[in-house]
Amino acid sequence: MTMHPDNLRRRSLLVLGTAAVLPLVVGCDRGGSGGAGGPAADAAKFNNIDISGAEYARDFTLTDHHGQPRRMADFKGKLVAIFFGYTQCPDVCPTSMAELAEVKKALGADGDKLQGLFITVDPERDTPELLKAYMSGFDPSFLALRGTPEQTAAVAKEFKVFFAKVPGKAADSYTMDHTAGVYVFDTAGRIRLFARHGGGPAALAADMKQLLQAPTA
């Protein structure tokens, strides 16, 4: 995607202005790498970024692609992996969701203890029917979550997720820039990790195995 210099400068300012609190922000037609801040990442324990105890990413109120209202408490007892994206993303989003499906397989008999969630940042186009079809390409147990524009903005703020519409060449076309990475919660519903895009499924699976073995009290 080629951007006009004024648009590129505008987006750079947005990213720089939020760099202290946001993980990696990408345009969805490009990959990349970056980091997220958190309370003392423990590189010796986890491959990904330890954000245990963070006072954000605590809950959400959204509707899944079956029409059922959902909150974090609905998934207590499972590891939860949350990715923010949109169905028309050509690269980062499908790659990330496919890797989550690989992680579930790598967990073997514990695979059913992982709940994958996809939260759309584009509810304008991502209808429940489209989200249901999209998720069917990854894993049948994964759920897509959708809200009103106001709910989407609220959950993005709670998770410190950046997203913005980027106009396309045609009058009615656009893409979405957004934070790219996976938030991981332990079986007690506590935020534990942020996995940067591009880290690969093997590292994430190893971290999840540690979380499953750790006491949750």
TrEMBL record:
Signal peptide: none annotated. CDD domains: SCO (cd02968). GO terms for molecular function: metal ion binding. It comes from the Bacteria. Keywords: Copper, Disulfide bond, Metal-binding. The keyword Transferase does not apply. Residues 51-217 form the Thioredoxin domain. Disulfide bonds join 89-93. PROSITE patterns: TAT, THIOREDOXIN_2. Transmembrane segments: none annotated. Gene3D superfamilies: Glutaredoxin (3.40.30.10). Cu cation binds at residues 89, 93, 178. InterPro entries: SCO1/SenC, TAT_signal, Thioredoxin-like_sf, Thioredoxin_domain. Belongs to the SCO1/2 family. This is Photosynthetic protein synthase I. The lineage of its organism: Bacteria, Pseudomonadati, Pseudomonadota, Betaproteobacteria, Burkholderiales.
